[in-house]
């Protein structure tokens, strides 16, 4: 006879799996592939600007910005985080933070296509006159020369555009889009990199990379812990497993 507890364990696990079905493809902000995709997408278009940039910095990942992006993405509001323009309200590192938001069906989402969609506003922007004929703010933030840190996050938001709708939020530091300021200085590629930067793939990259702190990484997770025998420990294992499933999927 199958014990009642065993069934309720199944039940909990099934529920958590069903709840998480749509969230299955939502990457964590610590997922190295997601991080790499977001960073590469930005650096790819930053190296593409026309006219060429003399001082365009390489962007790298910032966990604090990604955490900010994640918490805002999970709010599922298609507008900017209200902390952006408030001094030191978006975190401790930056006085102000920049932000881009993409909304669309999850099945069509890649970090690259979202960033390219923002970059594509370049057709509305005239570098020489610094005029914008339609929408340019996402573009100018993506190619803001001084912005060297980015953190992005994805969340499911059926309330915004129906089932399968996802929101992609990227937060930037230091922020771009200052009024009457050019996003970058036009000139020979990398000709205005700082002294401690070298030219890597058309971008000014800090040579002496500060050591990454490893304590911001999540500690190791249980790898499919097997329920132990005995009902108390079984129940405990069940709730641990259910919590674990919820934590990785939500
Ligand atoms: C961006 O623009 C290019 C060139 O016009 C176009 O081929 C591409 O489909 C656009 N991509 C997105 C994601 O808007």
Automatic annotation (TrEMBL):
Keyword hit for Signal: yes
Domain spans labelled SCP: 33-180
Signal peptide: 1-22
Keyword Protease: no
PROSITE patterns cross-referenced by the UniProt entry: CRISP_1
Organism ancestry: Eukaryota, Metazoa, Chordata, Craniata, Vertebrata
This protein's name: GLIPR1-like protein 1
Gene3D superfamilies cross-referenced by the UniProt entry: CAP
């Amino acid at each position: 006879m199958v014990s009642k507890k065993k069934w309720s364990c199944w039940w909990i696990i099934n529920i958590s799996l069903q709840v998480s079905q749509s969230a299955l493809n939502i990457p964590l902000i610590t997922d190295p592939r997601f991080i790499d995709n977001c960073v590469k997408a930005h650096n790819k278009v930053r190296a593409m600007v026309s006219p060429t940039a003399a001082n365009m910095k390489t962007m790298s990942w910032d966990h604090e910005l990604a955490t900010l992006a994640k918490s805002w993405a999970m709010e599922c509001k298609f507008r900017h985080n209200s902390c952006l323009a408030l001094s030191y309200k978006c975190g401790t590192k930056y006085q102000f933070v920049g932000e881009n938001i993409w909304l669309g069906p999850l099945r069509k989402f890649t970090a690259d296509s979202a960033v390219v969609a923002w970059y594509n506003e370049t057709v509305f922007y005239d570098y020489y006159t610094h005029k914008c004929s339609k929408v340019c703010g996402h573009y100018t933030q993506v190619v803001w020369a001084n912005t060297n840190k980015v953190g992005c996050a994805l969340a499911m938001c059926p309330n915004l555009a129906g089932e399968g709708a996802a929101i992609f939020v990227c937060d930037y530091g230091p922020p771009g889009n200052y009024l009457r300021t050019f996003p970058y200085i036009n000139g020979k590629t990398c000709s205005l990199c700082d002294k401690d930067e070298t030219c890597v793939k058309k971008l000014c990259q800090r040579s002496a990379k500060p050591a990454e702190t490893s304590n911001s990484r999540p500690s190791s997770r249980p790898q499919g812990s097997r329920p132990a025998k005995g009902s108390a420990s079984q129940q405990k294992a069940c709730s641990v497993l259910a919590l674990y499933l919820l934590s990785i999927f939500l």
